[in-house]
Predict the structure.
Amino acid sequence: MTKRARLCRLFGLTAAACAALALLSALRAAAPGSGDPDALFRDREDLGLAAQAAKIWAARLETNPADYDAACKLARAEHWIGERLARDRTRHFKAGMAAARQAIAAGPERADGYFWLGANLGSHAGAGGILAALRYLKPTRQAFETSVRIDPRFNKGTAWCLLGKYYEAVPGLFGGSKTKAEAMLRRCLAVDPDSIPGHYYLAETLLGLKRADEAREALLAAIAAPVDPDFGPEARVWKRKAARLLQELEGPADRAAAAGRRPE
């Protein structure tokens, strides 16, 4: 156990508070331009290492605003960090949006920048309250639509997945549609049948359509899907979410039957 982990346990800090502490320590300690950011980001489940990688990419981008690779990687890193934090999330999504826009300026014909713009916009909309959600609805959808138009197979079809999430989450009054969501998610799974977020969001959509048996199958598929080594940390997050939702879906009677006893 690390010294920081022992201190967190000693003072009864939550996991989110410990993650924020690790992030703050890394930001103070990291020297811009030092280290291999790709190697650091491979261990991004340690948010301190993810923050160090982001700081290096930000320094490179400041030196060369047309550095497409650094812009895309910074946008991805800021999105990852923001998604892991319980507080102060929106500043990371804003930084991710800014980096993604630099990527788009440097490579307007490539899908990556639009994808990470959409991801950061969507997460900011979810974290920033109702006004942010309304403000970013259309730009989020347009970013993902542009990404899939340029390269429908980019990132194993994940832009289709996030378009599906968009249509599932947005109220019908503002253009949401669970039918459209299902169609988008099935396009994602046509590109990558093992897409873990694709199966997870399909399950959420199917539950909204009152198709619980199919939703259960989608969750089991998410849990059983192989893990892409390049997206191991993300895969573990989605598998945990799928397991929790499956547990919620299987009520006390289902769990009792599986254990071979009468429900209480």
Notes: The chain is about 75% helix and 0% strand.
